[in-house]
Design brief:
Strand order of the largest sheet: 2-3-4-11-10-6-8
Structural class: mainly beta
Number of strands: 25
Distance between the termini: 37 Å
Largest sheet: 7 strands, mixed
C-alpha cells in the first residue's frame, strides 16, 4: 500500500491507489500529493473502484480507552459521483479499517471528499464526556473533457437541482425531412420548416419537493419565474392552480430553429397532448375540415400558443369525448428556451395512472392554418392517430 499522507493527529488516514501507475477498467489513475487525478471516460461505463483509504485510530491520552467509540463519516463538495464502501456512521474498532473509494459515473470535473472520524469517550480525570472530530479533505479531479450539456439537459438539471447522468437515455430522435400533413387532410403534405421540424423529444419523471419547486418556479429567486428569466420564457396556465410537491413529468421537443418569442406575422402552437387514462371514450377528435387534427385521440392537452395580438399563453384543456375542449385549472409550466419547448406536468392532473400515451406537436401559420393556400408548417411526434406510451415510474 502506497501511503500518500499521514496526519499528525491520533487519527491516521493513509491513501493508496487501486492500481499504481496503471489502469483499471479503462480508467487511468494517477495520484499526486493528496489528490486523485484520473481520466474518467463515460463511454467505458461506471468506473467503480479508483482507490482506497485506511483509517487507524488511537484514542487521546486523556480519554478512558474503555469508553472510546470511533465513528466514520464523509461528505462530498462539488459533485455526487463518489461514495465510500464504508457506510456513514460505521463504528471503527481498534484494528485498521480499509475502505474503497468508488465512482458511480463520470459526470463531474472535480469534487472534494471530506472524511471524518468522530471519537467520543469520557475524560480520565473528570469523567466528563468529550468528543473529538478529526477530518481529512482530498480532491478527485477528472481530466477527461465533459460532454457539452444540450439545452434540454440544462433545463432539467436546473429544475431538479442536480446533475443528471446519462441524459441521452431520456432522449429520442424524431424523424426529419419527412412530409407532414395538415390538420385538414385535403391540404397537401409538406416537409416542415426548421421552426417546427422537431429533431428530438424527451421524457423524464421526477419527484419535486417544496424546496425544489421554490428554487425552480416559486421562490423570489426562482430560476424559471413566470415571464422572462435566465432560461428563456416560462408560461403559467391560463387558469393557474398552485404547484405542490409531488411527481411531475418533464417532457420536451426540440425544433431545428429557435422558438420565436415574438413575431409580428405568424402564430405558433407547441403542444404536448395525452391520452391520460388510456380510455378511448373520452378522447377528442377534430371535426371537418380538421379531421386529421394534431390533437386527435387525446383527452388532456397542454399547449403553448402565440398570437401576434395576444403574445404567448399556456392553455390546458380536457376533452369529455363530446367533441369539445374545456379549459381547466392546472399547475403545469412550459419553458420556451432556445430550441426547446419543455413542459412540466403534474401527475395528479392525469388522475395518477401508472401509464399514459402522448404526442408532441408543433405548428405555425400566417393566421390561415393553411386554408386558401395560406402559409403553414407543422410536425407531430408521432403523427396522429399514433401515440407513444410512457410510464409514470420515477426516472431519477
Amino acid at each position: 500500500m502506497r501511503i500518500l499522507h499521514q496526519l499528525s493527529f491520533p487519527l491516521v488516514i493513509a491513501l493508496a491507489a487501486a492500481c499504481s501507475g496503471g489502469s483499471s477498467g479503462g480508467q487511468t489513475v494517477e495520484f499526486r500529493a493528496s489528490d486523485i487525478t484520473l481520466c474518467c471516460d463515460p463511454s467505458q461505463g461506471a468506473p467503480g473502484k479508483i482507490g482506497e483509504f485506511t483509517i487507524r485510530t488511537s484514542p487521546p491520552a486523556d480519554l478512558d480507552p474503555a469508553t472510546v467509540e470511533a465513528r466514520f463519516g464523509y461528505s462530498l463538495v462539488g459533485g455526487s459521483s463518489a461514495r465510500m464502501s464504508l457506510p456513514q456512521g460505521a463504528v471503527l474498532g481498534d484494528a485498521p479499517v480499509t475502505a474503497d473509494i468508488l465512482l458511480d459515473d463520470c459526470d463531474f470535473e472535480g469534487m472534494s471528499v471530506v472524511l471524518e472520524v468522530t471519537l467520543t469517550g469520557r475524560r480520565l480525570d473528570t469523567r466528563e464526556p468529550r468528543a473529538v472530530v478529526y477530518s481529512r479533505v482530498f480532491r478527485i479531479i477528472n481530466t477527461c473533457p465533459q460532454p457539452a450539456r444540450i439545452p434540454p439537459q440544462i433545463l432539467v438539471e436546473e429544475i431538479v437541482g442536480s446533475a443528471v447522468s446519462n441524459f441521452e437515455n431520456f432522449t429520442m430522435p424524431a424523424p426529419t425531412g419527412v412530409p407532414t400533413g395538415n390538420s385538414d387532410p385535403s391540404i397537401a403534405r409538406r416537409i416542415p420548416d426548421a421552426v417546427t421540424e422537431v429533431f428530438q423529444i424527451g421524457f423524464v419523471v421526477v419527484d419535486l419537493d417544496q424546496a425544489q419547486l421554490d428554487a425552480a418556479f416559486l421562490g423570489p429567486n426562482a430560476k424559471f419565474p413566470v415571464g422572462n428569466g435566465p432560461h428563456g420564457r416560462t408560461l403559467a396556465p391560463q387558469f393557474p392552480a398552485p404547484m405542490t410537491p409531488g411527481r411531475y413529468a418533464l417532457t420536451w421537443q426540440c425544433p431545428s430553429a429557435p422558438i420565436p418569442l415574438a413575431d409580428p406575422v405568424h402564430d405558433y402552437q407547441f403542444s404536448y397532448v395525452t391520452d391520460s387514462d388510456l380510455l378511448p371514450g373520452n378522447n377528442y377528435f377534430g371535426s371537418a375540415p380538421w379531421t386529421a387534427d394534431y390533437w386527435n385521440n387525446t383527452d388532456l392537452q397542454y399547449s403553448a400558443q402565440y398570437d401576434p395580438a395576444t403574445d404567448w399563453r399556456l392553455q390546458v384543456t380536457r376533452s369529455s369525448g363530446s367533441g369539445g375542449l374545456q379549459a381547466i385549472l392546472s399547475s403545469a409550466r412550459v419553458v420556451l428556451y432556445d430550441q426547446v419547448n419543455l413542459f412540466v406536468i403534474p401527475w395528479s392532473e392525469s388522475g395518477s395512472p401508472p401509464e399514459f400515451e402522448g404526442r408532441h406537436t408543433a405548428f405555425t401559420s400566417d393566421g390561415s392554418a393553411g386554408q386558401g393556400g395560406g402559409y403553414w408548417s407543422g410536425d407531430q411526434t408521432p403523427e396522429q392517430p399514433q401515440l407513444i406510451r410512457y410510464s409514470w415510474q420515477l426516472s431519477l
